[in-house]
Structure formats: structure tokens, C-alpha cells
């Protein structure tokens, strides 16, 4: 598949995320209930309704490109992937969704040659959207908006000391805290979902270490935004963090997200 203009593609992802947001917010504002999937992770009707909207739109936008979507994958829909494929998380941060703190996102990303080359992260409860292709953008978008007007964003250069780390609101652990100290972190911020990558992308933090398990659809869109903003994501040994890990069932290992050098 010839990759289209990456910024234009990211904006199309943004429109799709916005189109899926009203059904997510309808459930969010209701007296909904969650249930557990086979892997014990929670799921709500918002995940399934949003994913259906997203998949239909992506099939029209990029026909023939394989899609790995969290809920379809859990139901056994596991297409063969090629050099290019899409990753979809209809509600990233379901625990944040259940707790109604607003820090959940809708994520779409295109992977090409193991790298995220275009992505969108939308937090509909916060009315905040980020996207990344060749460049990174962020701004206010209401659920259902099709007119997406955003401002350029850029990761900041990390100082050698007094760094700020953003950590998972639900999954921070002792190893993560210990690693942050070795990196000169003096301040930590808690955040949910892919918003942690976006905080680095807009220059609000320097480091996001993650040693607990994640899936590829959890990280790809935020990774694309951070890359476009001048940051990077790497394995703990400093090698590039890649996608398409068929042998692990698309389970990620530990990673370190960073702002600019």
C-alpha cells in the first residue's frame, strides 16, 4: 500500500475518532456496567460501539489494510498483517472510563515497516485531541466535530537534572519509580491512557517509563504523536521500540518514552 500524506491521514484518523466519540460519551454519562474479558481486563458497551464505527470508517479509508482492533482481537478476529497495518483501541484506559475521571482516549494508528507513521489520540471527555504524522498537532475538539483545527506541538528538550516523569495512573510500580530516580526525575505526574505520550509531545514532561505489560494498540497512536513532536520511544536498552510482534500476540515489552534529546 502506498502510504498517503501522513499529516492528511492523521487528520482523517482524527475525524474518525471524533465521529466515534458521541457513542462513547453517551455510555460514559449513563449508569453503565463493566464486564471482564477472558484476560480479566474490563470492557463496556462503549468499547464495542465505538470500535464498530471506527472499523467501518477505516475500511472505507484504507481498503485492504489489515486492522488489529482490541475488541475484535479479543473475539478471535486476528488477520494476518503485512508491512502496513492499523491498530485501534476504541477506549484506551477503560479503568479511567469506569472511574469517570475523563482520562481515557480513542486511538488509531498506522504501522509501516514496524513503525507508527500516523496516529490520533482523542480524549473526548476532556475535548482534547492530538495527532501525529510528519508533524504533531493538538487542541480542543468537541465530540462529533468534523472541522478539526489544531495547533502545532513539540516535545521539549530534557535538562540533565530536574526532569519530570509522567506515570500510569493505574499501573505505576516500584520498578518504574526506581528507574525514574536513576534518570534524575524530581517531579512525577499521574495520567491515564495514551495521554502520557501526549504530555511528552506537548512539552509538559520529559519521560514516560513503562515496565508493566501493554498491548500494541495501547501505545501506537501515542507513539506516533510523540515521534512527530520530536520525541521517541525505545526499549530499555536504547534500541528502537517496534510493532508487529506476532510471536508475543502483539504484547509489548517494557519501554521508555522520551522527549527531545
CATH class membership of the largest domain: Alpha Beta
Strand content: 25-35%
CATH domain topology of the largest domain: Fructose-1,6-Bisphosphatase, Chain A, domain 1
Give the overall silhouette. Answer: globular
Helical proportion?
25-40%
What is the number of helical segments per DSSP (H or I, 4+ residues)? 7
* Count of folded domains: 2
Q: What's this model, at a glance?
A:
By secondary structure, the protein is an alpha+beta fold. It has helices spanning 6-28, 45-61, 70-74, 94-99, 174-182, 195-201, 216-228, and strands at 35-36, 42-43, 67-69, 84-92, 105-112, 115-123, 128-132, 136-140, 151-152, 163-168, 185-191, 207-210, 214-215, 232-234, 251-252, 255-258.
List keywords for this structure.
261 residues, alpha+beta, Fructose-1,6-Bisphosphatase, Chain A, domain 1, D-Maltodextrin-Binding Protein, domain 2, 7-stranded mixed β-sheet, 7 helices, 16 strands, globular
How would you describe what is shown here?
With 261 residues, this protein is an alpha+beta fold. The protein has two domains: 147 residues, Fructose-1,6-Bisphosphatase, subunit A, domain 1 (Fructose-1,6-Bisphosphatase, Chain A, domain 1); 96 residues, D-Maltodextrin-Binding Protein, domain 2 (3-Layer(aba) Sandwich), CATH 3.40.190. Helices cover 31% and strands 28% of the residues. The strands form five sheets. The protein has a seven-stranded mixed β-sheet with strand order 3-4-5-6-7-8-9. Helix 1 packs antiparallel against helix 2 and helix 6 packs parallel to helix 7.
Amino acid at each position: 500500500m502506498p502510504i498517503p500524506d501522513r499529516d492528511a491521514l492523521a487528520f482523517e484518523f482524527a475525524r474518525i475518532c471524533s465521529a466515534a466519540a458521541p457513542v462513547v460519551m453517551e455510555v460514559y454519562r449513563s449508569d453503565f456496567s463493566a464486564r471482564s474479558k477472558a484476560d480479566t481486563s474490563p470492557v463496556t458497551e462503549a468499547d464495542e460501539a465505538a470500535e464498530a464505527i471506527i472499523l467501518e470508517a477505516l475500511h472505507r479509508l484504507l481498503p485492504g489494510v489489515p486492522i488489529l482492533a482490541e475488541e475484535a482481537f479479543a473475539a478471535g478476529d486476528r488477520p494476518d498483517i503485512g508491512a502496513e497495518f492499523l491498530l485501534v483501541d476504541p477506549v484506551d484506559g477503560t479503568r479511567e472510563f469506569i472511574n469517570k475521571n475523563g482520562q481515557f482516549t480513542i486511538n488509531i494508528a498506522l504501522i509501516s515497516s514496524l513503525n507508527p507513521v500516523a496516529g490520533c489520540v482523542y480524549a473526548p471527555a476532556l475535548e482534547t485531541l492530538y495527532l501525529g504524522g510528519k508533524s504533531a498537532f493538538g487542541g480542543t475538539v468537541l465530540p462529533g466535530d468534523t472541522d478539526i483545527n489544531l495547533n502545532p506541538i513539540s516535545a521539549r528538550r530534557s535538562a540533565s537534572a530536574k526532569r519530570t516523569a509522567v506515570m500510569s495512573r493505574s499501573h505505576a510500580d516500584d520498578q518504574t519509580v526506581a528507574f525514574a530516580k536513576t534518570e534524575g526525575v524530581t517531579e512525577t505526574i499521574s495520567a491515564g491512557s495514551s495521554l502520557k505520550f501526549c504530555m511528552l509531545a506537548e512539552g509538559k514532561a520529559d519521560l514516560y517509563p513503562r515496565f508493566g505489560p501493554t498491548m500494541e494498540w495501547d501505545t501506537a497512536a501515542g507513539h506516533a504523536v510523540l515521534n512527530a513532536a520530536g520525541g521517541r520511544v525505545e526499549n530499555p536498552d536504547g534500541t528502537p521500540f517496534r510493532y508487529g510482534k506476532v510471536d508475543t500476540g502483539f504484547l509489548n515489552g517494557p519501554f521508555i518514552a522520551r522527549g527531545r534529546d
